[in-house]
Amino acid sequence: MFDFNPSSSAKRPLEGRRAYRDSLFLCATIRRGSDPAGDLAPVRVRNLSSVGLMADYDDKVECGDPVVATLKGLGSVKGRVVWVQGGQIGIAFDDEVDPIKARRSVGRRAAGGAAPPRTR
Question: How many domains does the chain have?
């Protein structure tokens, strides 16, 4: 997990992460707070691990704010903002996820859709 201290004023990524991060670009949404009817902000996820993610996010948010990230293949995942820097945020998930499920959804074809072309 991230070394999260809500009283810390640090606004940069924490050093010494223990989870492998998979670099990728995924579209997702982030909802601040726990209100299911809250506003959704579209984001681009830049990396994802079993314990958190980094995303492009321009809305105002503070370290410690609760959020719900919704990613294809994973569904809604609760977490907290652990850092904010230059239009990006880091989120630590409340519970671990399987990031492979999000990666699989990118390559999987839609039901009834054509298979991607084969290359040699």
Answer: 1
